Amino acid sequence: MTKQVQQLDRVIIRFAGDSGDGMQLTGDRFTAETAEFGNDLSTLPNFPAEIRAPAGTLPGVSSFQLHFADHDILTPGDAPNVLVAMNPAALKANLGDLPRGADIIANIDEFTKRNLQKVGYDANPLENDALAEWRVHPVALTSLTVKALENFEISKKDAERAKNMFALGLLSWLYHRPVEATVKFLESKFAKKPDIAKANIAAFNAGWNYGETTEAFSVSYEIKPAKLAPGVYRNIAGNQALAYGLIAASVQAKLPLFLGSYPITPASDILHELSKHKRFDVRTFQAEDEIAGVGAALGASFGGALGVTTTSGPGVALKAETVGLAVMTELPLILVDVQRAGPSTGMPTKTEQTDLLMAMFGRNGESPVPIVAPSTPSDCFHAAIEAARIALKYRTPVMLLSDGYLANGSEPWKLPEIDDLPDISVDFATEPNGEDGKTFLPYKRDPETLARPWAVPGTPGIEHRIGGIEKADGSGNISYDPNNHDLMVRLRQAKVDGIDVPDLEVDDPAGDARVLVLGWGSTYGPIAAAVRRVRKAGGKVAQAHLRHLNPLPANTGDVLRAYDKVLLPEINLGQLALLLRARFLVDVISYNRVRGLPFKAEELAGVIQDVIDSD
Amino acid sequence: MTETLNGKGLALVPKTDAKQTLKDFKSDQEVRWCPGCGDYAILAAVQSFLPELGLRRENIVFVSGIGCSSRFPYYLNTYGFHSIHGRAPAIATGLAASRPDLSVWVITGDGDALSIGGNHLIHALRRNVNLNVLLFNNRIYGLTKGQYSPTSEVGKITKSTPMGSLDKPFNPISLAIGAEASFVGRTIDSDRKHLQSVLREAAAHRGTSLVEIYQNCNIFNDNAFEPLKDPALRDDITLRLEHGQPIVSAIKAVRRRADGTLEVVDRASVDESEIVVHDAHNPDPSLAFALSRLDEPWFAHVPIGVFRSVQRPSYDEEMAAQVDRATTERGAGRLSDLLMSGDTWRIS
């Protein structure tokens, strides 16, 4: 039988199953195959905070969405064209996102009476017309896998566990993915359990062959490689890119990297990644708590290292006092906040942009801190270097605001040329700087940057004491003088206000748009995709995206005032909008959804069009 | 590395040939403790002790938290970091772990170390970072003007406890031993000779040394340690701990009961062979812990000196060894290799 091959320009697949079903691994492997094939892609993992929520329940559903195309794309996609549902819970939890006509590949073995009841299905939706709107492909994934592995010396449980590889094999056939790398991956992952490795590879091949031979699937699909800019690419998730960026920053600064961190979702992967790279003179310190993590990082900075701490919102709250100490002692420090849904514990695995005002103001006293926010997973690499540049040049703590969407989402990354990375090295103080040639003034500032000297222990002749008590200008001695305090408050503010940040760039191809859509951080992809849609439909809209939130680019006010309307989508209740209105007296139009999920391009396109259409 | 450094707390800190005196370690800042405060005596003892170490002054760092004692770094002409309440052990850990060439001293008090900063203290002790922690214990909150502290006796009448405090106090020595400390000592502000002898051993110890210093707050808790200072009493109740020596005061001796616990008896009533001989180097912490409990009831008899001094690898050495091992086994990291380390593909 010759099967039909259909050409597509893009596909969105969502793998969904129980949190123990291995959906993240399945998604990762499909992503790797797709990257190798040369499509552009973007991914969105979505999983519960519970490691193993009760099996078969709605809270236990874990999913992985992948958008891939023959052209460059900006988001993991709004709505899946294909849902792989490993059980009734996975079907029920994701059905609402499926557009009419989408494909559903369902594991019928798991659609038992008991599993159906767990999620409130009175009847099996695969057997009635409940799914009539969609194209349903019932596949006995579990029993087919077990049958394929009946000659293997493994337990029935282990055989059943390989069903995700069967599903991966089937999807790999369906979309013409290259398979060699997955076989190698399985050999290496289960190197210590060769029987399991062989069984998983057999399940993977069985899935492929099932697609090839069964009549259940009459069509397979081809999505041609995307035409991306020439270069060497790899797929990368935000947390990994951020960790690489921190290492690159330490290399470019010629300083050892010291990470003080306490495990917290969704930031822990940065700690895990950095701990693997000790040969870059990286020291990772898993502290007893969030406060000790940042304290140790600041202590290392005092000693002349690039001190970094990584956390999420609850951790930032705990670190606030130490960040204030870094503001006061004017030492370099990078605080990475991988934002998650709050307040309090909130929804640890879900994304949000709700820590902006905490980053700006969440400390006692006048305590300005620069803020940098990456816009895509791979941009986390460059944003980390930029945060380090500011921290080192201006001797200040810097907040790097990533979020759960960037942290776990991935995209192909065109690797930068190492020679193009900026030199961010700075000089330590080496000798007294007082006019008498003998005194050292730890708070005598560089007239241009207002940075104070970084004088590290071990340097003779400039022994000095710093601390959290107000300093006398210049000498750094304890001072309660009212005018000195006023001066120092203003100097610390002026230093941050004077940080050199590039101008805000506006993308307005037509040149006559009257509406600007502005964003910051991880909303870049959905906003840019929405802007494309609007323009494609004939709408005129300009787009600008802020990477520096403090200080803002010098031309920000001019850009805002140049448009009749400024639309600002944020995954919070309007935190940047509050800052912009206060600062520039421009009444930006806020669009806010705080659902723990990224915006959808279609949703934003509608909002942009509404703003364009309104008077 | 580990074996060679054991017991050599300052082996990696550069030495100087220049002759140093107490004056070299005095900063230009006016000392601002209350007249009569025990901190003056400790400062003078430390300033006159530091030249003895023969270290390059720029390689010495004093880190403190918040409290009266935490002003200490301002008065020493070394590098200093007056940080925030309770966090000095954490900050010092980052410094010492990344700079083994520094002699790092943490100055803290009973509130700073045992209340707000208790977590950092116990974790620094178990990790065995190369730090010397001097815990000034005055059994009261001084800087906030006189509330009870985690070492105040039960029933303490203070501004915040007009009907008496309810909490059972910490015994800092017991706490430190329980937290896997490798070096634990106790001394008294007014006994400079003893204080310096304990500092000497603490400095020589590689790893975290905790030294509790009984320090009199003459404003809010005067005479808290009076029995140990009263010439008529002190020799009778002070049990001086010296490794390898019988544990005795002028009139008392420590004996082991049949059940293994310790008791303090009249020295005259026991045979010399029955007296417990101090073994600070015993890997088993039982004796050191039992000794730490001998000050119950309150000041009936108080051991001072080094309770425990055992050798185990320090955190900073082991951290450096992992960096060395990773570099030796796989070569120094190259950024281009790192970026190319995953599955890559080329688009031309």
UniProtKB/TrEMBL annotation, chain A:
- Assigned keywords, A-Z: Oxidoreductase
Q: Domain (Pyruvate/ketoisovalerate oxidoreductase catalytic): give its ranges.
A: 20-207
Which CDD domains does the annotation name?
TPP_PYR_PFOR_IOR-alpha_like
Tell me one GO molecular function of this protein: magnesium ion binding
- Please name the GO terms of the biological process aspect recorded for this protein, alphabetically: response to oxidative stress
Give residue ranges for domain Pyruvate flavodoxin/ferredoxin oxidoreductase pyrimidine binding: 258-472
Look up the domain of life of the source: Bacteria
Q: Which SUPFAM superfamilies match?
A: Pyruvate-ferredoxin oxidoreductase, PFOR, domain III, Thiamin diphosphate-binding fold (THDP-binding), TK C-terminal domain-like
Signal peptide stretch: none
Q: What is this protein called?
A: Oxidoreductase
Give the originating organism.
Sinosporangium siamense
Q: What is the lineage of its organism?
A: Bacteria, Bacillati, Actinomycetota, Actinomycetes, Streptosporangiales
UniProtKB/TrEMBL annotation, chain B:
Give the source's domain of life in one word.
Answer: Bacteria
Give the record's GO biological process terms. Answer: cellular respiration
Q: Which UniProt keywords apply?
A: Oxidoreductase
InterPro entries per UniProt: 2-oxoacid:Fd_oxidoreductase, THDP-binding, TPP_enzyme_TPP-bd
- Gene Ontology molecular function: any one: oxidoreductase activity, acting on the aldehyde or oxo group of donors, iron-sulfur protein as acceptor
Q: Does this entry carry the keyword Oxidoreductase?
A: yes
What Pfam families does UniProt report for this protein, alphabetically?
TPP_enzyme_C
- Every copy of the Thiamine pyrophosphate enzyme TPP-binding domain together lies at 66-213
What is the name of the protein in this document?
Answer: 2-oxoglutarate ferredoxin oxidoreductase subunit beta
Q: Give the originating organism.
A: Sinosporangium siamense
